[in-house]
Design brief:
The complex is a heterodimer of chains A (about 350) and B (about 400). Helices cover about 65% and strands about 5% of the residues of chain A. The longest helix of chain A has about 35 residues. Chain A is mainly alpha-helical and about 350 residues long. Chain B has about 400 residues and is mostly helical. In chain B, the strands form 2 sheets. Chain B has a 3-stranded antiparallel β-sheet. In chain B, strands 4-5-6 form a 3-stranded antiparallel β-sheet. The N terminus of chain B is likely disordered. The chains are: A mainly alpha (about 350), B mainly alpha (about 400). Chains A and B meet through helix 5, helix 8 and helix 11 of A and helix 5, helix 6, helix 8 and helix 16 of B.
């Protein structure tokens, strides 16, 4: 093992972790700002210029809040819940290629922590562990509202993962690979998957909303029905971790959507620019983050516009609409692929 | 939560869970408690508890002179206090046999319809909030603010207005108030349309509300429903039309009715009623006659302060009214007005003293709340929340 390689990976991991956390922090700020603008309000503007220090203030506030734990709660699992949620949320960023590789001193440095050949499978597998954090937290609180929220979360995530997986399957069939790097490299220029898989994209987008527990699928925390849902009993930074995990999940979901359907770090007319490899990589990262921000904005836009589903309607939508459509989508993809070959 | 219909009922009941919805729950908008028996998310039975903010208004009213009962009525349905105030004055005027000038009637119509608009705004926007769409609420609450500024201009108060006097108003509408009302009339229909666009034809909202918390017209009549909740189930009963008061019969307005009596119909009926209220305010304002802003009843109408300080007669009447030396006639009176959420009745027995012998408020919210368990039985938890907000049961009015 060469030291250079280890140092480069450590730097990359630290950078990605920091960026994920920073993005999650500032997503809370932008969520509040956008919500305010959608609603004819001003939003946070007291802490720092334009309220830019608001996420820090929020974080500090959460850290200094009193830690409250119900007497009847299962202590171990109660602490485990938010830890797991946060851990899993951060884990997903490992396989996402943030840009094409850099060339420093004749050596290639990929902007991806681990280029595993089953990248998508890894993401699906890890995100599905995320529901355990919510379930454990909800169950361990020993509160009926929390339990209802946890049950809702579990059933919602399981049913939407299926449709999500099926939507991804069509992409995998098209690109003949499970590696995210490979899928992105096939979408050079404007040859994006969205042009071939619009239905798949819609299904994936809806499922991503449900996976992140975002409105209109925010039933697990549904404040008007379940008080706080699975995090009713949580306070202090444990609550913060749950909220943070939600925003990190949103960030990662936007990244996966951009990678799978919108060409990742590729952008139109990139070859005609004639830039060096390093410059391309840097611009690629910027483009990728622009795409991610767009989807992040879309997530917020949807949240502040639509009412939420009812539990049974949500399940019906998942099982009787999304899954059959996704299967049909796979079928058509398969037929088209067969004819083209 | 598995379906086990073969088991006998007693064993089956063991699988139910009990959920305390309230008294402090973010969705109950006030202090309501419901003990729900749940099968998973499905509601098997509900047991409402009332009285958390019972303040014994009816008993307090027996110790208060008539003009001091007005602030109590403010706190019944505090979302539309001017209707309650006016309803009380109309009741007392009926007891006294005072006929008010047309100008007073029209002024009262204007403030009552403004109050109806604010009340419906709160109710409908809160239906939106409870179904998860917060944005419409913030849009439309700016219009509520505009109405409150009008109240402020007319009476000096915003929420609990204590507006008016026995026999009329304490002062005429100022030019600024009229200007504000006119501005509101121009701006509001557009804003209402904007709000409606967010929800009315929204598929998710329709799925959430159609067929939820419905009641048949027959059941609604049996329970004694009135107001928008009754009209949503298809009965065109409106006190303003059936038993006109305060010159409502001078004006033309439509009574919107629904058919299913569900949350969606209530939402639509309220929206349409706001449009009709705008029409009424417009007509009343355009035809506002010249004249005195109060009836000529010096023994009951509290005179203005500057008159009290400068005018002997006014000082005497002020003293007599405040000290309770003007006795009321004996009598038994029922008078109802179309409150924002139903028929608001005042049943008043006077034995001739300075205070009522007995006063009963017919609070529409109290009656709707009796039907709440029936409306939510068999539904899901989410339906219960929406049904509650769509019935517009106000805690202050429920418990009086």
């Amino acid at each position: 093992m060469d030291w250079n390689y280890i140092i480069y990976k450590i730097i990359l991991i630290t950078a990605i972790m920091t960026v994920s956390l920073l993005v999650a922090m500032y997503s809370t700020y932008f969520e509040r700002k956008f919500a305010a603008w959608f609603q004819d309000r001003l939003g946070p503007n007291r802490a720092g210029p334009f309220g830019l220090m608001q996420p820090l203030a929020d974080g500090l506030k959460l850290l200094f809040k009193e830690e409250f734990m119900p007497n009847t709660a299962n202590r171990f699992l109660f602490i485990m819940g938010p830890m797991l949620a946060m851990f899993v949320a951060l884990l997903t960023s490992a396989v996402i290629p943030w840009g094409s590789s850099l060339n420093i001193g004749g050596k290639e440095y990929a902007l991806q922590v681990a280029d595993i050949n089953i990248g998508i499978l890894y993401i699906v597998a890890v995100t599905s562990v995320g529901v355990y954090g919510i379930m454990l937290g909800g169950w361990a609180s020993n509160n009926k509202y929390s339990l209802l929220g946890a049950i809702r979360a579990a059933s919602q995530m399981i049913s939407y993962e299926l449709a999500m997986g099926l939507a991804i399957l069509a992409i995998v069939m098209m690109s003949d690979s499970l590696s995210l790097n490979e899928i992105i490299s096939q979408q050079k220029g404007i040859n994006w998957n969205i042009w071939y898989q619009p239905v798949g994209f819609l299904i994936f987008m809806i499922c991503a909303l449900a996976e992140c527990n975002r409105a209109p699928f925010d039933l697990p925390e549904c404040e008007t029905e379940l008080v706080g849902g699975f995090h009713t009993e949580y306070s202090s930074m444990k609550l913060g971790f749950f909220l943070f995990a939600e925003y990190i999940n949103m960030f990662i979901s936007s990244a996966v959507i951009s990678a799978l359907f919108f060409g990742g770090y590729h952008f139109p007319f990139e070859d005609s620019l004639g830039l060096s490899q390093n410059w391309m990589a840097i611009i690629g990262v910027v483009v990728f983050f622009m795409k991610i921000s767009f989807f992040g904005f879309l997530f917020m836009w949807i949240r502040w516009t639509l009412p939420r589903f009812r539990y049974d309607q949500l399940m019906r939508l998942g099982w009787t609409w999304l899954i059959p459509i996704a299967i049909f989508n796979i079928l058509i993809t398969g037929v088209v692929l067969m004819i083209n070959n | 939560m598995e379906e086990n219909t073969n088991l006998n009922t007693q064993e089956y009941e063991k699988n139910y869970s009990t959920l305390n919805l309230g008294p402090t729950h973010p969705a109950t908008h006030g202090i309501f408690q419901n003990v729900l028996t749940m099968d998973g998310e499905k509601i098997i039975d509900a047991e409402p508890t009332i009285g958390y903010i019972h303040r014994a208004f009816e008993k307090i009213a027996e110790r208060k002179p008539y003009y001091q009962i007005t602030p109590l009525t403010d706190r019944l349905n505090y979302c539309s206090a001017p209707i309650n105030n006016t309803g009380w004055f109309l009741t007392v005027e009926k007891l006294l046999g005072i006929s008010t000038p047309k100008k007073v009637d029209y002024m009262r119509i204007i403030i009552m319809e403004l109050a109806r608009i604010t009340d419906h705004l709160i109710c409908n926007s809160v239906i939106g909030v409870d179904s998860g769409a917060l944005t419409g609420f913030t849009y439309i609450f700016q219009e509520r603010e505009a109405v409150y500024e009008i109240y402020e201009e007319i009476s000096g108060a915003r929420l609990t207005t204590n507006m008016g006097r026995i026999g009329g108003f304490e002062r005429d509408f100022s030019p600024k108030a009229i200007e504000k009302i006119k501005a509101f009339l121009i701006r509001f229909p557009k804003k209402l349309h904007e709000f409606e666009n967010l929800l009315l034809r929204n598929r998710i909202f329709m799925d959430r509300t159609i067929g939820v918390g419905g009641i048949s017209s027959e059941r609604a009549l049996n329970y004694g429903f009135t107001g928008p909740n009754l009209r949503a189930s298809g009965v065109d009963y409106d006190v303003r039309y059936a038993l006109p008061y305060s010159s409502y019969n001078d004006f033309e307005f439509d009574i919107p009715v629904g058919s299913q009596g569900d949350v969606y119909d209530r939402f639509c009926v309220r929206n349409e009623e706001m449009r009709q209220s705008i029409r009424l305010i417009q007509d009343a304002l355009n035809n506002l006659p010249e004249g005195n802003f109060h009836a000529d009843v010096p023994e009951f109408y509290l005179p203005a302060k500057e008159k009290v300080y400068n005018n002997m007669e006014a000082l005497i009447w002020h003293f007599k009214i405040i000290m309770g030396e003007t006795n009321m006639p004996k009598g038994e009176i029922y008078h109802a007005v179309e409150g924002a959420n139903g028929e608001l009745g005042f049943y008043l027995i006077s034995d001739g003293g300075r205070t009522p012998y007995r006063l009963h408020f017919r609070r529409p919210g109290f009656i709707y709340y009796q039907a709440y368990p029936e409306l939510i039985r068999g539904g899901l938890l989410s339906d219960a929340i929406l049904t509650m907000s769509s019935m517009n049961v106000i805690a202050g009015e429920l418990d009086a």
